[in-house]
TrEMBL record:
Name of the protein: Nephrocystin 3-like N-terminal domain-containing protein
Coiled coil spans: none
Nephrocystin 3-like N-terminal domain location: 62-200
ANK repeat extents: 523-555, 684-716, 720-752, 753-785, 786-818, 885-917, 921-953, 954-986, 987-1019, 1020-1052
Molecular function terms, GO-annotated: ubiquitin-protein transferase activity
Taxonomic classification: Eukaryota, Fungi, Dikarya, Ascomycota, Pezizomycotina
GO biological process, one term: protein K6-linked ubiquitination
Key words, A-Z: ANK repeat, Repeat
SMART domains to which the protein is assigned, alphabetical: ANK
Amino acid sequence: MSHQNLGTEFKAEGDCEQYNSHGGGDQHNHVDRSDRRQATINNYYGIYLPKHNPALAGVLGGSGKSILISLIIHSTLQKAQENSKSACVYFYFNHGDTLQPSVSQLWAALLEQLLEQNSDENIAQEVQSIFDRSRYGVISIPPIEYFNLFKAQAVLFETVYLIIDSLNICADYNDDTSHQTLLETFQKLPDNVRVIFSSRDGSLANHLLVQKKIKVKPQAADIETYVNDRIKTSRKLRLQQDKSFMKDLVKSIIHQTEESQMFDHPISIVSKLTIGRFLIARSYLDRLNEDAFRANIKDMENSLPEDNCELSRFLQPSFRRVEQAKDWDKALARHVLTWATHAREDPTAELVIESFKLSSWHSSKYQDLTLDAESLLPVCHGLVTLDHQKGTLRLIHESVRRDQSLQELISSETEIAMMCLECIGTDVISDTSSSLFSYSATFWASHFHSVKRQNDETLDELMMGFLGNVSQVTKVWNLRQAINDRQKMDWVTGLHAAAFFDLPDWVDRLTSSGIDIDSTSSDGQTALHWAVTYGRREVVKALFACSAEPNMQDSLKETPLHKVLNGPTENCLKIAKYLVDRNASVTIESTKGFSPLSWAIRYGPTAIASLFINSQENVNTETKPGWTSLRELFHHGHDIVESISHDGKSRGSITRGRAVKNHLDSLVDLLLEKRVELNQKTEDGWLPLIHAAKHGSVSILRKLLEYQPNSNVVNQRDPKGRSPLRWALEYEKWGTAQILVQHGSEVNENNEDGWKPLIAVTKVNIYEMVQFLINKGGDVNGRDNDGRSALSYAVRNYNKDITLLLITKGADVNIRGENCPSNIEISLRHADLSIAWLLYMHGADLERCDEKGRTLLHRVCLAGNLPIATFSMNQSVNTAVLDYSGMTPLHYAVLKESEKLVHLIASRSISRETIDKTDNKGATALILATRKLNLTLVKSLVRHGSSCESKDHKGMTSLHYAASLGFAEAIQVFIPDITDIDMTDNTGNAAIHFAVLGGKTNSIHLLVEKGANLEVLNNEGCSPLILAVLKDSAAIVTQLIRAGANIHAKGRNGCSAMDFAWNQKNSKSRVVLEKVLQSKISHVRWA
């Protein structure tokens, strides 16, 4: 398909900048606009070639060609920006530039533009692969490969618009082979790439088999603009002009050129339509200016050139007028035409005037003349036009540039080169903002490179004058920096300029003139720094020929070798080798902490990193304290891998990861070839194998181990006493750990902190590693400093698979740590009965006592854990076991007040002796339950046969405690099983005494009802009534008297209750007793 989307109308609404592929400081923009007003250019297509090459369309240029191309680019870019599936790329070939881009530069420039219009995720695999490989290796790309990369990227778009301006210039400046290669690439573009190019050579269109040619037909507005400009520059024409003059003239020109379509040859048609209209207007105005009566448009139309080859004949009158002009006019015209022909960008009128004044400064011949922009055009007799909007001059037609008459008329480019050097090399122009100084500062080197082979002594003197003047060089450099919005410098020498602008022949001249070869710029960099930075290999050679110091450091402490990694790998490698061969150090560190060696290791390319490593006589020598080449490689290689891993698993990151692996593997192989020592510790104790175990890849580790297969390096420990195996396991490098074990790492290694490999992997539940270590001889019963084995940690982690594996491999199920529960208890606490059953079936001891003499059942009862207790009871454990405090599990169940636990244990107790086991204080479970006032527990224990009459060490029974506490409900439970309700404790107190002492009237009432003896005396001879009087409890005294207590009964000391009340003056009890005596109710029982 042809380019159907360009439409029928383009409007000049903005600028289109040239995409310039040239490096150095000679870049400039080629900007084209319409003149002063918005011009409309209509296009129509004439199909006259076969459709087997559908991607190409050609523009055969004439006047207005550059404007057309700019408009096409501007419009197509807008369309591409509106559609993410489309892209627009373009390229300008520059007239007069001897350094035209090569095929690879052209396609590299177009590829870069294409990539800028892509998202990061939409990069062709071929492009991504080249990029990733180029970081860590030498990638020498053939010229045609850039074209292939462009094709690969282009197919990711739905449509790519490719626009080339002045394609014919490529043939003018490049050799035939390069030109042919370029044309062949156009014919191999994919179908989705649509090409439009401009050319003044019709044979190119035929050669490329273009489908369509765009015929450029200027509109009335364009002719009107041109005619108006000519009239403004001619006083004679202004006097002849009337109101209808211009419209009639334009109408006549358009009419006459429309009739030119009688020509059959396409080239002639295009030539007539593009060149013809403007040339008719120009010729007519020229003749009108000379003789208004002889000017005839029809005659001039008939004399138009058929193609560009006849244009020279058509313009000869203009050349003759220039030659025949007065000296001043001729000198000025020569100067204007020289600048219009050789300038690197369209020169401004101001620039031409300034340069002319400077050229005439050497003589006073034209000093009194006043020049302005309007005075430049008449002397050129129509060979030059002025863009009033931009104030720039250009030839009437680009083909004039190659005309022999013009070449004979103008000065050589050497004149401009000398003008530039004179301007910037002296104080002849003090205003650095002037047009001439700015142009000279920007393009002096470009002009000098074009003419330097002419061996002009004056030119060389000017060059030496400039490069030898630090002040002027610095001024020019800072002007360039300001234009590019970069930081200025305090001083720059001519040697630096020679390095930057690639002038190797001037290095020796400058040093011979007295400039120090190692002189620095204000940032501390020498010319060698600059030459290396910008890839000027010949300048590097020239600097070394003058004994440049290779290890000078700039303000960042960087040497020239630090700068070598900035450019293309192939060129950088040659420069780096040149520096290394001349004793440039690869280990000097910058302020950023990088040496050339470490930087190359980290960022590549592999070839340069290899070069730096090879430059070391002994790779085991520390480049700085604690650091060898191998450490640099391992350290920075790890950083690179980490940075890539953060990018995720995208296609690009995977490819980069592969490139990094190849880079690291290659450098490791090189170091091993150079006999690197793996068991040699650095100053701070660093060891290669330790680092590889922590951070390295499996493949690199295997290389290191196979390098010294029979040594014990695999077990060599770092200053902390840690082995490679330990570091690998702590960093969870399981593959690394396996390789270490396979190469002799000790699987049962001992450490002061008790660390063991098998325990370590069991802690983190890595079944495969547990199995691997056991199969390699790992001790399943090895313990750490806490006394725990691997099984302990497997049980703690609830890991059934590892638990079973360890048990089947012979692990002792009863090993437990110090002050730690047993394994089976841990499993039961976690309610993991399956592991508990597994442990029990393999010999786990449920009755094993801890440091307090407690069995598992003791502990679970103390914790109130019914499920574990049930599991234990189901295994028929002994419930009568006493711990060191004499307590049974039932005691702890009562203390926990767990009704279910008490019921479980009591119900399964085989005898009363078991259920009535006493603790170290003689208390039975029933006594504890009574003291807890827990009626449910009391009933359960009594129901399961617990004795109410069992005494503790004080001789107290459960009934005594119940009476003392007023636990009436328990007394009612106990009384049916009591054989002697007046049973006393060690102090002779019966239950009724405890009830009185506790002040529990409810207990007294129940005991009296059950027949308790009210006159029983304790060891101190006190009856219950005497105790009540001594406590001066009127209510208890009254209750006992009403129950039948004798107030006159004497105790063992001969005193009655009345005596105690009277003698001790206990007023409350005395009042009660006196009332009893007075009312004679001492024997009345209390109903």
